[in-house]
Write a structure and sequence with these properties.
This protein is an alpha/beta fold. It has 4 domains: 55 residues, no CATH class; 79 residues, no CATH class; 110 residues, Isoleucyl-tRNA Synthetase, Domain 1 (Orthogonal Bundle), CATH 1.10.730.10; 61 residues, Ubiquitin-like (UB roll). The protein is built from 14 helices and 10 strands. Strands 8-7-10-9 form a 4-stranded mixed β-sheet, with helices on one face. A two-stranded antiparallel sheet has the order 1-2. A hairpin with a 4-residue loop joins strand 1 and strand 2. The termini are far apart. The model has no long low-confidence stretch (mean pLDDT 88).
Length: 380
């Protein structure tokens, strides 16, 4: 049953003093010693007992902290209405819609059954009594997966498989650490730590860095040889970041770097790469951005620039590789313009020396075309 709690001298929280080993955290209720101490006879004589003063769950404060962040100094309201409407109210930005709420909430899996559950209850109660104008606290929520030890086991001191981020940063740099954490796997799934994976991300960033000196960067526009690859990369990285598929976004950047080493790259090509890499390796990108003169030319840091846009018409391949079968068996491949008609595909297939070995002296009686994928020649 509920009990009446006594008044206390003050409610100021008191926690550990890092400079005083003898200090202890103290709940405000514990300051009323007359209430805390109670004498009872439980059958073995009268003894002094102490009531539990921890009367509030530790989630209580975190259940509404997202509102206090936006109005931390208000002494009269939990959150002032104008502040709430600006940051979290209905239609506060182009993404929020009529529901409003925190645009994106990211937490661990354990939040789904603890903090998230409780904060929704609190918020719905506050909505019912008219304190907040939105029914839900969060517009979108996602959980990040747990990073496991090298063997796929949960990290713990007893297993000796704990990875200290400071050690990784000291050896490989903060950008490598950031890039690897995003590249390790699906954002929402658990993934095992890999020392080789860290080294791989370091090699990737080194390749990006070396492009600054190994290539001759001329021309502010995208080079003709890389134009399609750059537009495809912008499209892929943009969509993957929005979908929180950071690992595949980084993979697309790795593929683009390979293209640049193979084809060379213009100044415009390299600038686009740096802007797309900036969220993952900001320190290195800003260093290169400044060194190569982009900061002076563009009027600011890389992180201050507009995100690069892609031309949808330039993300479509002009040519496609198609498999050529003869009587159902793969005999070769051909490269033809996208959406080529049957006549053109068959002509290209019959002109291929590898295919000719299986059609020479035979009559073509039927062709089966799967557009942009394969052609099957039935020859007898």
């Amino acid at each position: 049953m509920p009990i009446n709690l006594p008044d206390v001298p003050d409610y100021e929280p008191r926690t550990f003093d890092p400079m005083d080993a003898e200090s202890n955290p103290e709940a405000p209720l514990s300051r009323n010693e007359d209430w805390v101490k109670v004498e009872l006879d439980l059958g073995d004589g009268k003894k002094t007992y102490y009531r539990d003063t921890n009367t509030m769950p530790n989630w209580a404060g975190s259940c509404w902290y997202y509102m206090r962040y936006i109005d931390p100094t208000d002494t009269k309201h939990m959150v002032e209405k104008d502040e709430f409407d600006y940051w979290m109210g209905p239609n506060h930005n182009k993404y929020s819609g009529d529901e409003g709420g925190v645009d994106l909430y990211i937490g661990g899996v354990e939040h789904a059954v603890l903090h998230l559950l409780y904060s929704r209850f609190w918020h719905k109660f506050l909505y019912d009594i008219g304190v907040v104008p939105t029914k839900e606290p969060y517009k979108k929520r996602t959980s990040h997966g747990m990073i496991l030890g090298e063997g796929g086991e949960k990290m713990s001191k007893s297993r000796g498989n704990v990875v200290n981020p400071n050690d990784i940063i000291e050896q490989y740099g903060a950008d490598t650490m950031r890039t690897y954490i995003m590249f390790i796997g699906d954002f929402e799934k658990a993934a095992a730590w890999s020392a080789n994976g860290v080294k791989g991300c370091k090699r990737f960033l080194d390749r990006v860095w070396n492009l600054a000196t190994d290539q001759e960067h001329t021309g502010d526009e995208y080079s003709k040889v890389n134009e399609a690859a750059v537009h495809k990369a912008i499209k892929k990285v943009s969509e993957d970041i929005e979908a929180m598929k950071f690992n595949t976004a980084i993979a697309a950047l790795m593929a683009l770097v390979n293209d640049f080493y193979q084809n060379g790259c213009s100044k415009g090509d390299y600038a686009a790469l740096l802007l797309m890499l900036s969220p993952f390796a900001p320190h290195m990108v800003e260093e290169l951005w400044e060194t190569l003169g982009f900061a002076a030319e563009k009027g600011g840091m890389a992180c201050q620039q507009s995100w690069p846009a892609y031309d949808a018409s330039k993300t479509v391949d002009a040519e496609v590789n198609m498999a050529v079968q003869v009587c159902g068996k793969l005999r070769g491949t051909i490269t033809v313009p996208v959406d080529s008609g049957e006549e053109a595909v068959v002509a290209a297939a019959l002109a291929d020396p590898k295919v000719q070995k299986f059609t020479e002296g035979k009559k073509l009686v039927k062709t089966i075309l799967v557009p942009n994928k394969l052609v099957n020649l039935i020859a007898k």
